[in-house]
Amino acid sequence: MRRSSSLPLPADAGVPRTARGDWHAIATLIPYLWEYKGRVLAALTCLIAAKVANVGVPVLMKEIVDSLDARTAILAVPLVLLVAYGLLRLSTTAFTELREFLFAKVTQRAVRKIGLQVFRHLHALSMRFHLARQTGGLTRDVERGQRGISTLVSFALFSILPTLVEITLVSAILIARYDWTFMAIAAGALAVYIAFTIAITEWRTHFRREMNELDSKANTRAIDSLLNYETVKYFGNEEWEAQRYDQSLQRWEKAAVKSQTSLSALNIGQSAIIAIAVTLIMWRATAGVVAGNMTIGDLVLVNGFMLQLYVPLNFLGVIYREIKQAMADMERLFNLISEHAEITDSPGAMPLVVRGAEVRFEHVDFFYEPARQILFDVSFTIPAGHNIAIVGPSGSGKSTLGRLLYRFYDVAGGRILIDGQNLRDVQQRSLRAAIGIVPQDTVLFNDTIEYNIAYGRPGATKDEIIAAAKLAQINDFIASLPLGYQTQVGERGLKLSGGEKQRVAIARAILKQPAILIFDEATSALDSKSEKAIQAELKQIARNRTTLTIAHRLSTIVDSDVILVLERGRIVERGTHVALLGSGGVYARMWRLQQDEERTVAEASPLPAEMASLDLAHALRTSAAPEAEAEAVLRSST
Question: Helical H runs in 125-237?
């Protein structure tokens, strides 16, 4: 039976408004624009020149009209005025386009630099931020914010400022030439128009913010659903996902309708104010002509001024709305920039100096959330060039040790040192350059196999990439593909199997050539045959490198120098494989359980049974040999 199509509304139906002010957003942009102050000043000069030419057109038109008298036989003056009129028209367009030409680089460079700053800042944010982020909404916020920057710069500098210049010039001419009533009507209408536009637009901005919020949520749901395409198909929930997406779209639609209807009300009000003002101005000018105080040319001049003043003023309403919408679009982008980076280099942090790569955990406590502590007083040492394995049940904190070593998080108590250097006191970049990891869950870039292997050391040669692939036992598989190393792996590497992705991750770690290696269930996605082939290579790779192996299959770590047993965030046992089996504790119970599982599988298939017994015999032989050395390591780690 299919589930009901009705879905509950999310709890976050209300859309909060951020506290960041519009002036703060503008102030943030100024340094990016002022980098090219020469171009900015030249563009502003062209802007003023274009507006002076534009205001000069009606003035010249008045002279032409007044000179067209039937009693005047001299045609030279009208001809000169007509040529001047054409030149003014051309100058208006030429200076405007020159202004755009000069400022284009300034605008696009500002967009590029802010976009790059956001991108770098996102990578600098902590793992905690990225685990909680919603990718679809985040990308939409960045996209809209960059578009908003371009809109703000273009409209603020090239629409509002020119209109203000034009209003100033027109006002000066009206005051100098005509009765004060003309200026009073123009100024009164202007004040009412601006007040009306600002009041209504401020009210409408809430709808834009709501639209942005709901658009981001809809995009988040869509991206999340597509990324989990297989899961949707497994459970036949295509319609369920469509309903969830449509629910977000419905809420966005309501906000969009409100925005559009309020826009219509704004446009009607603006048009009414302009119509009344122009009518009053023309009435006053007509009365002046009838009374003999003004010429026909004056009537044409006043009418031209009103058209020049109120047509851009009408657009000023649109421009103001666009700027307010751009501000709303930029809010989230700037909030991302101001997002606090939890893990930062301390002042005066020095690069990590790797001498032998000894790793030491000293009384480490850690929690993701204060109410749920993960690690309790964890202490151990991995001597330079040795291999320590961490085992324990799921949720015991094994993978957390690797994250702390990479300094994705800071410890809540205690400290972690590499060659005596506290991780808090060294530069993160140098720390991570010294560590290589093969994670349990390998996620690849949507690019070629070659790119994903080379990601371990960008700039590596093709021969080095192939050599790493051979060590990871994946070169033969790649060579069998029609496109070889140029084969695209798909979104998150989904075109490859789990084992193939894991071998790419191993090759990537090999290519990096780190001083410290972390194997986090490095062969968990491989079959037994592939695992045995790769284990030998992993041992070769780890030779003379400090290695932390996090394992679930105990048979893969029997020859580790020391094995630590982690349970509920505490180290409950430590020792060699043989010593831990002899103690009869947690490790011995885990070993017996896994051996029982292997025997159960072996009874169902004779071939795996033979292989399992050989594996056990090999494990016991290899674990007994280095016991003396392991005991020495154990003593140093305690």
Answer: 127-132, 135-155, 161-177, 180-227, 229-234
Q: Supply the CATH classification number for the domain 359-434+516-637.
A: 3.40.50.300
Indicate the CATH number of 22-337 among 1.20.1560.10, 3.40.50.1240, 3.90.650.10, 3.30.420.10: 1.20.1560.10
Q: What is the 3-state secondary structure (H, E, C) of 100-133?
A: HHHHHHHHHHHHHHHHHHHHHHHHHCCHHHHHHC
Can you tell me the mean pLDDT for 603-614?
Answer: 49
* Tokens read off for 294: 């003004």
Output the CATH code of domain 439-513. 3.40.50.300
| Cα–Cα distance, 411 to 421 (Å, whole number) | 15
Query: Rg for the chain (alpha carbons), in Å?
Result: 36
Report the DSSP pairing between strands 372-382 and 359-369. antiparallel
pTM to 2 decimal places: 0.61
Check the CA dihedral 584-585-590-593 and report its sign: positive
DSSP string, 346-402: PTT-B----SS--EEEEEEEEEEETTEEEEEEEEEEE-TT-EEEEE-STTSSHHHHH
| 20-46 per-position pLDDT tens digit | 455 666 666 677 677 777 777 887 788
Q: What letter does residue 448 receive in the DSSP assignment? A: B
- Distance from C-alpha of 342 to C-alpha of 146, rounded to nearest angstrom: 25
Residue entry with tokens 């209003």: 167
Please state the length of the chain. Answer: 638
The sign of the torsion formed by the CA atoms of 211, 147, 35, 159 equals negative
For residues 577 and 636, give the distance between their C-alpha atoms in angstroms, rounded to a whole number: 17
Distance CA 402, CA 390 (A): 10
On whether the CB atoms of residues 525 and 502 are closer than 8 A, the answer is yes
**DSSP 8-class letter at 459:** T
Distance CA 255, CA 142 (A): 21
Q: What is the pLDDT of residues 547-585, one digit of tens each?
A: 999 888 888 888 889 999 998 889 999 999 999 998 888
Region at 464 (left for phi over 0; alpha for psi -120 to 50; beta for the rest): alpha
**Helices 296-337 and 161-177: angle between axes, nearest 10 degrees:** 150
Alpha-carbon distance of 375 to 357, in angstroms, equals 23
Domain boundaries of the chain, sorted by first residue? 22-337, 359-434+516-637, 439-513
User: Are 112 and 101 a contacting pair, CB within 8 Å?
Assistant: no
Same fold, 359-434+516-637 and 439-513: yes
CB atoms within 10 A of CB 53: 20
Alpha carbons 174 and 166: distance in angstroms, whole number: 12
> SS3 of 546, please?
strand
Distance CA 419, CA 197 (A): 66
